[in-house]
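Our preliminary data section would be incomplete without showing what the modeling component actually yields. Below, a chain of 254 amino acids is followed by its predicted structure, encoded as tokens that our downstream tools consume directly.
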Amino acid sequence: MTRSPIVDEWVNTMFPSQDIRPEWLSNACYEIERDWKVNNPCDSISEETYLGELENKIVYTNLSDVTARGSRGLPAGITLPSMYTTLDGPIVLELVHMMDVGVSAFVLEKVRLDREQAAYQRLCATEESIAGLPLVAQRDPQSVATPTYPRKCMRYTLSDGRNEIEAVEFRKAFPFLLGETSIGLKMRLENVPIIGGVAFLDPDLVEILGGSVEEQAEWHYTRFRNDLTMRMGEELVLSKKHGIPCRELFASAN
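Predicted structure:
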């Protein structure tokens, strides 16, 4: 199908540092037009609505599927420890992993296990309802609270769909929380300082586009557990070396 020049213009403006797969873009445009005709047979779609639907498709899709193989993206060598530069952009990256490095891994692991237990209790309460137990014996699934992770110092892993870069918050914090923020979320970066191969993000200068990707969320959780296991081992070594509990390795960590 022939795409509107407006679409190509929008893509070039939104992704000046990346190349979108032509076949993905054409299929996305086809689906937008098809679905609009089915749901609104008497109306034509406005340019604003069309581009909004296209952006929505992008933020809920893995960038590795959206961007062309061999596409431009993160510059080569930008993650080297010797790299001190600026990521000019604009470039769209997605959040694929996050970890709080300011809290003991033992604290985070305890919360993770408590959250799994809470999820199990909600399932049991739902099963009791399905099983037809007397109301007095049933538990309300909504009454089981989900523990929240403490928040101190977040470290993020961002991807252009092919390559990853580590990032930390600079000047102020993002409204991101472990266990709450959607993995696969897209953000648009520009003029980001790179210090020792790590991106320093100023939330005031980062445009959050939103979105999520389920498969990335699943991979993040596996990665999160593995990271905690590794960190707990490292903390034990330091704890024995300095003769203090692991939690005391982190100032004011609770």
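Residues 5-66 form one domain. The chain has two domains: 5-66, 84-105+152-249. Preliminary results of this kind motivate Aim 1 of the renewal.
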